[in-house]
Amino acid sequence: MPAATTPSPTSYRFSFGPWNISTGADPFGPPARKEMEYARKLKAYRELGFDAVQFHDDDIVPADLDWQATLKGVAEVKKILDGEGLFVEIIAPRLWEDPRTVDGAFTSNDPAERKYAIDRSKRCVDLAREVGCKNYVLWLAREGTYIREAKCAKTAVSRIVDAWNAILEHDPEIRVLGEAKPNEPMDQAYLPTVGHMIGVCYKTADPARSGVLIESAHSILAGLDPADDMAYALHHEKLWSVHLNDQNGLKYDQDKVFGSVDLRRAFNQVRVLEESGYGKNGECVGLDVKAMRTTSFEESMYHLAHSKTMFLRLLDVVRGLDRAKIEEFRTHRRYEQLEMYILNELMGRR
């Protein structure tokens, strides 16, 4: 078991999802290591120094169970969580894997498939209530097209808003967090960026309960800087969760260890979150990272420990910055000196 290093005390709470401990299967190859027992995954949270769990609806119980069987399954999971001292940070309906959503869920051209998607989404709200979670994430994985002419984009956005509203109206306590991604699995997404997602927030039935979750890699895939996306959402007071990871260029979603590709880009995400007071209202620092396919079963949780450690080490750097010096550089536009100051801090050269 890897040790999650804590360089200095922090008020942040951390989360990840059970899918982050995987078998290493990918579209081009079968599993590379055995599946870890579900209860063992949940036990690993506290061992790694994490506080909360991210769930899809079918991470808790299968999506096709009747309600009595669902309640029994939820009670079993809740017992494990309570025993480990964990809470559920977010829950999301996994709509993209069902055969009925091959053409999208909320934006499908088939009204029966759209009804299935909304019914399952409402059921996920009921699951959220049972596990005491108020943060409901919508990753609109297949809400897009492979060709422009396949759907009416204007109608598609309206259908997404209608579905968002159906979730809000199903429970007055639930908050919906839109998670933007520009592509994959669809060729083109209808709400590809954080800006698009926040625009939709203001068109919902209750903008005060509509916000966003930002994933680092998704911003990078859109050609944007995650720190700037976070700052934008923070300005709107709508950044309610993050999925930190890293990404090696504009390719498939890699979910690499946080800070493993671009240390300065990771530093700026930590800086924006820290300087904006993220976490003061109970928000978690969530991770969405995958172990490399070559990783052994015995080391298949190191990526989680390493990502948390990287966040905390960068937090140390952020908290150690000389704010007066930075302000002086800004005031006199001495940006060359400011840049070298930041680089020196990241390299430990003071």
Domain unit count: 2
C-alpha termini separation: 34 Å
Order of helices and strands: EHEHHEHEEHEEHEHHEHEHHH
Q: Over the alpha carbons, how many angstroms does the gyration radius reach? A: 20 Å
Mind telling me which CATH architecture of the largest domain this is? Alpha-Beta Barrel
Percent helix range: 40-55%
Describe this structure as you would to a colleague:
The chain is built from twelve helices and ten strands. Helix 9 links the parallel strand 9 and strand 10. It has 350 residues and is α/β, with parallel strands linked by helices. The two termini are 34 Å apart. The radius of gyration is 20 Å and the shape is globular. 41% of the residues are buried. The strands form two sheets. Strands 3-2-1-10-9-8-6-4 form an eight-stranded parallel sheet. The protein folds into two domains: 307 residues, TIM Barrel, CATH 3.20.20; 29 residues, no CATH class.
